[in-house]
Each structure stands twice: as C-alpha cells, then as structure tokens.
Amino acid sequence: MRLPIPLLPAALLAAIVVTPALAFTPVTLDQAMAHPDWIGTPVESAWWSWDSRTAYYKQKRAGSPLRDTFAAGTAPRKVGEAELADLDAPTLVYNRERSRAVMLRNGDLFERDLKTGTLTQISRNTTAAADPQYSSDGRAVQFRVGHDWFSWNRAERLVAPLALPRTMKDPAAEPDEDYLRAMQLRLIATLKRQKDERDASRAQTEAERRADATRAPAPIYLGEKIVIDASALSPDGRWLLLATSPKSAENGRVGKLPRYVTESGYEEFDDQRTRVGRNLPLAQTFKLVDLRSGSLRDIPLDALPGIATDPLAAMRAARKLEPVKGNRAVRLDDDEGNGIAWSGDGSQVALSIRAVDNKDRWIASVDLAGARLKPLHRLTDQAWINNSYNEFGWLPDNRTLWFLSEETGYSHLYTLGADGRQRALTSGKWEATQVTWNSDGSAAWVMCNRRTPGEYEVCAVSPKDGGVREVTRLDGGVEEFSLSPDQRRLLVRWSASYVPAQAAIVPAAGGEAVKLTDTRSAAFKAREWIVPQFVAVPSTHGGQPVWAKLYRPATLEPGRKYPVVMFVHGAGYLQNVSKRYPVYFREQMFHNLLVEKGYIVLDMDYRASKGYGRDWRTAIYRQMGHPELEDYVDGARWLAAHHQGDIDKVGIYGGSYGGFLTFMALMREPELFKAGAALRPVTDWTSYNHGYTANILNTPDLDPEAYRVSSPIEYADRLKGHLLIAHGMVDDNVFYQDSVRMAQRLIELKKDHWELASYPLERHAYVQPESWYDQYRRIFQLFERTLK
User: Fold this and answer.
1) Which residues on neighbouring strands pair with residue 478, listed in sequence order?
2) Chain mean position to CA 183
3) DSSP secondary-structure letter at 131?
4) Could you give the CA distance from residue 697 to residue 738 in angstroms, rounded to a whole number?
5) N or C terminus: fewer CB in 10 A for the chain?
6) What is the pTM assigned to this prediction?
7) Quick check: 76 and 517 in contact, CB under 8 A?
8) Of 561, 542, 541, 543, nearest to 552 (Cα)?
9) How far is residue 115's CA from residue 51's CA, in Å, rounded to a whole number?
C-alpha cells in the first residue's frame, strides 16, 4: 500500500521546482489571444458503452459551435447519425443485479438489457423525464416529469402515474367558512340537496378509484400557497418526500442591464439579478406523503441540533435588528433533488439540509411512520459551509450511509452504520471528492490530491480496512473519471499544463494508463512552452505555504533584476496552481510572452482558493481582500529574495475576483504595487449576488463593517500607481456599473494614471478574439510603460 507523502517544510518545498525548458517558442500576443480552436479542441465529456468495450467522447468542431461524438480507439471514429439512436448516455442507473440499466438521452428514458444489449425506449415526451430509478423489486422503472412520478412496468409495457402532487386547493375540500354560504345552505333546501349529491358523487368516485387498480391515483393537493422545489419517490412506491417553499415573497429591486450595440440598432434592456441581501432564499418545509393512505404530513425541524440557535444573534442585537424567532430557515442542500437519497429498498431516506445562513449542514433520516427527522450528522462552521464536497448516499446494504464532510478541516469520506458508528475511510491534509462506489459497496474511488495540493489522481478506498492507494499516475492531473459497467477499468479525463483535456483508460486496480486521444493541433504540439515551476512560498502570517506557479527564464542573468508581474485567478474559490490544463490558458500563454520580454511572473493560490482545506477557504470571512493581499505581498518579496525580482517594479492583474484583488493591491499596498489591470472587477460587494457574497460577508444590513473593509471603492483615495480597468458592458455577473462607479469615484478624487476600457458586446467571460487581444494589448502596454 502506498502511503500518503507528507507535506514538507516550506523552505524545502520552495526549492523543489520543475525545471523549465531550456528553449521555448516565442508567442505573439495575437496568437495567444486567438480563438482557442487553434490549440485543438479538448475532450469535453467521456463515457462507456454498456458492454465496457467502447469509450465515447464529445468534441467541438474547429471553427464551429457544433459538437460531434467519437468512439475512441487507435484511430478515433466519428459516430454517424444512424448510430445515435442506439448510443448509450454518460450516466447509467443499474438494477440490483446489474442485469439492466436505465438512462436518459435527450430527455427521454431508455432501458438497456445488459445481457443481450437490447435497448427499449420507455418515454418520448416534449417535457423531459428526470431522476430515473428502479423499483425495489426490480420489476419497474420509476421516473418523474416535472414533479409527477410515473412507473414503467416492463411486463405490461405500461407507463402509469404513481404520485401527482398539485399546488392547488383540493376541489372537494370544504370552502373557507363564510356566514353567507352557511345561511344559504341552512335556508335553501335545494342548494343543500345539490351539495349533498355532489359530495356523495365525489366520495363514490374516490372509493372506486382506490378499489380499481387500473385507475390512476388521485392528485395530491398541497394547497395554493406553496411551490414544489424538489420531490423524491421511495423505490417501493409507498412514500413521496417533498421540499416546498412559499409561492409569494417580497421581491428586491431588479435593475436593468442596457445593451447599446444591438441588431435592432436601438438600445435594449435585460433584467439584472438582485443584489446581496435582497430576495433572501426562501425557507423550505418538508412534507411526507403516504401514497397508500393518501395522508400528507409536515416533517418538523425541531430535532436538528442547533436549529433554534442563531449564530448571528450578537450581530443582530448590535444592529438592533429583529431577532430570529423559533427555528432558523433551512433548505435542501440541492434543490434538484440530490439533497434527498432513498435506500435501494425504500426503507430509508436521508436529507442533506442546509441553514439559509449557511452556518450548518445536517444529514438526517426520516422516521417514516412518525414523519420525524432523526439527525445523523451535523457540520457547523462559524464562517460558512462549503458549497462543494457534500455528496452522500446509501450503500447497497440499505443500512449504511456514506457522506463527505469537512469536519477535520479537509473533505473526507465517511460511513455511518445502522449501529450509529461513524467511520472515517480517508484522512489527512488532502481532499477526497467525486465519490464512486462499486456495486456491492466493497470499494470506492475518489479524486485525491495527496502528494501536493495541485496533483489530482484517482484513489481507491477500502471500507474494510481504510486503505487508500493511488490507481492513476498521469503526466498532469485527473479532471474526472467513471467506472466501467464491468467495474474493471476507469475512463479518465486528464489534462496537463499545455495539454487540454484528453481521454485515457486505467485499470480500476491501478496500472499503466492507455491514452486514447491527443486532440491538440500540430501547430500547438510543435511549440516549446515554458513549464511553470510549482513552488511553495513561505507565509509570514503562519500556517501553510502559499502554492504558486512561477514563470521565469531557465537561467537568470547574474546581477540583473527582473520586473515582476503577479496574476490573480478569479472566482476566489478556484484552484489554478495545479498540474491540470488551466482555466486561464490564454493567460498562461501571455505569461510566456512576458517572460520572453524580460519579466518573471507569479500565479498564486492565495487564501480562499480551492483544494487546500476549510481553514484556507474561510480565512477571508468578513475580510475579503486582506489575507489574499498578504499572500501576494509575501510572493513579491519572495521573488525579490530568491529569483532576482525587482521589488520596486511590481505589477498585478486579474479578472473578476482577480480584478477585485488587483484594486485592493493598488489601493491598500500602493507603495509596493506600481501598476495593475483590474478586469471585470467587483468594486463594491453590496452589488454582487447573494449566494456567493452572503456566505463570506453575511448581509449588508447585518454586517456593514465587513462590506466596508472588503470593498475596493472604500480605498480609492489611496490609489497612487497606474491602473487599467477593463469591463464588458453586458456583463450579467459582475455588472459594468461596478467599474463605472469606481471611475466616477476616481474622477471626483482627481486621480491620475488610470483608464477605463469598455467592451460593448462582452459579458463576464469574453468570447471574441478581438476583445481578448485589445484587453491584453492594453495590459502589456501598461506593464511595458510602468515597470520597465
């Protein structure tokens, strides 16, 4: 068994680097910012055929938005249109014996006989089917359309409804009490007789419906004041679990997004999303329907530990806001229904429930007889619970729950037996994600980054002894993987620094990888690129080192100081310092150009980045732009001390969160950072969305100080260096208004050496090569003008 390699001291790690190529092919700015098709289009998704003999993958056509399907092999073969009707989908759902599998393709449902290969179509609708599963006895396939649940009986080839929930008032229910109606029925005998006849007729129809197995079930009326957010049917067909929320709620103000360059020639306007603190996520209630009796019961939340304790009570009191009364608002962890997991036999169900304030996540089962929650696991965090790494489900024994949890500070895999005993199957200072179990629950495969945070492989996990071992060892890093239907091999999408995602097959037990594709163009493969050095920059603020990618000449000229450019990745919670193909592949080519022109470049996974555990992620709670900036200051000084970086010539740039942090660098450390390019930047977090921002800064009414210290517009008066702001004018993520407001602030402050570049047809993620080129021409000229 291969043991995890422990993290080394920061000083030693900093010395362990990958030596760059001695020579590299110069790249022009025009080439780096050209349409990425010139690189070669990547493998976008890959999946197995039902018999495990063929691997399929999707690939974009060069110069076209269209995608083609290929069968992998020595010479990949494009799948013809005539073959599409018999093609398997990427996700198969197996019956208990693994003799049959169901799949969704184009919204329609199919079943494959895994002994003969026969494919049978189950549904053909204009509304897509969803969530297919096998009935507990294996005789039927269950699925939903909207929130109506159906069953397809294989023997009868009949699709029949099982549960028809309706968000309306029961037509047979007594009207609300009304004195005029009561008087009419008391005084007018004919009206009373007509009512009694209607009631008798309805009662007879319902009795006949229950007695006649050929009749569809009656609708389940939930009332007209709610909407259904999620539903899940038990495989035994008896229970329906629903998550609902109020139909109406107070709406926050919605702004307008103007578009000036349009086909019509006139200005056009789209609705914007609401800002943080507006339209708070609505609290959900959970309902249990017994489909045999027709009973409908609410499931109370009181059993969840800590549900009635407000972790933000002190803040509310300080702001003299109304305290939370009763239980906190909660929602399913995933509104698509993945927050509910039934065991295969339908005897157990678990819910993953998250507090709307995002300080708690509970996993709870349901006492079906009593319609009560039974808490199984609680994850709590004074900052916020991770939106990722929340997978869970039941093992084939129908009694053992498995789940991911960050309770140790890192995402790891756990099981919880019927005896209440919790077992950690993985552990250590690394992340376990993307869990895949075999058919009998005797083994699991997870994504793991045990050697260094940026090296992702697939690890096999043994629930029996807790053994963990790597089963892949590819040149770069694994993006995703799937287990073959015969459970003998893994189909892996992998990539490397200059290799977009490709497909490979690896034995499930470990062994040599067979690479199936290389979709790179001949022109791209012919080039020699600077291999980034993976370095660990010591932190002066304690804790872990800051991992980074360093781009520099292979040999530094003695006595020469090199101007420094620092890159900031976007999203905040994103990992760019990995051996995978970067999201920022254009920027990587730009960094090659910068090195060619005499710079050294550092790309850091600052605190808040993904892949480094809970504490790294939550270090920015209530202070965005502060710990991250400390990391960049450490990086600049480390380059000066160890790589001949010129500490008097430091520039910085990045987009989205990277643009935000560029502002913070120039405005909070103006003596160090001489120039910066803030691309599509957040300037004031009160203008950003709720789902992201409220986790980190709470809400503006509750925690205004967190917004004040975290918003660059509050520091605009400190700007001294040279600043480029670039923003797409139809950006529906970070609004163009953010940059316009900052521009007005800089005008009023009479600041010099700044400019705003606007791109009328670009949203948050730029698309057009001309826009990419113009933006990076400005960035390059900024650095040439100010750092040389």
Assistant:
1) 494
2) 59
3) E
4) 18
5) N
6) 0.92
7) yes
8) 561
9) 9
What count of other Cβ atoms lies within 10 Å of the Cβ of residue 234?
25
Residues 226, 167: contact at Cβ < 8 Å?
yes
Q: How confident is the model at residue 372, as a pLDDT?
A: 97
**How does pLDDT run across 238-247, given as a tens digit for each residue?**
999 999 999 9
> Is the pLDDT assigned to residue 181 strictly greater than 90?
no
DSSP conformation letters of 514-565: EE------HHHHTS--PPPEEEEEPPTTSSS-EEEEEE--SSPPTT--EEEE
Beta bridge partners of 602: 550, 566
Residue 232: strand pairing partners: 241
The one-letter amino acid code at 198 reads R
Residue with tokens 């520039």: 651
Rounded to whole angstroms, the Cα distance separating 332 from 349 reads: 14
593/601 Cα distance (integer angstroms):
10
* d(C-alpha 355, C-alpha 361), whole Å: 6
More confident residue, 185 or 346: 346
Q: Answer for the pair 738, 684: CB distance below 8 angstroms, yes or no.
A: yes
Torsion sign over Cα 609, 610, 615, 618: positive
* CA atoms of 721 and 715, how far apart (whole Å): 13
Instruction: Select from 657, 705, 617, 631 the least CA-distant residue to 382.
Output: 617
With pLDDT > 90 as the criterion, what percentage of the chain qualifies? 84
645, 636 in Cβ contact below 8 A?
yes
Structure letter (DSSP) for residue 63: T
For residue 489, the one-letter residue type is R
Confidence of residue 337 (pLDDT cuts 50, 70, 90): low
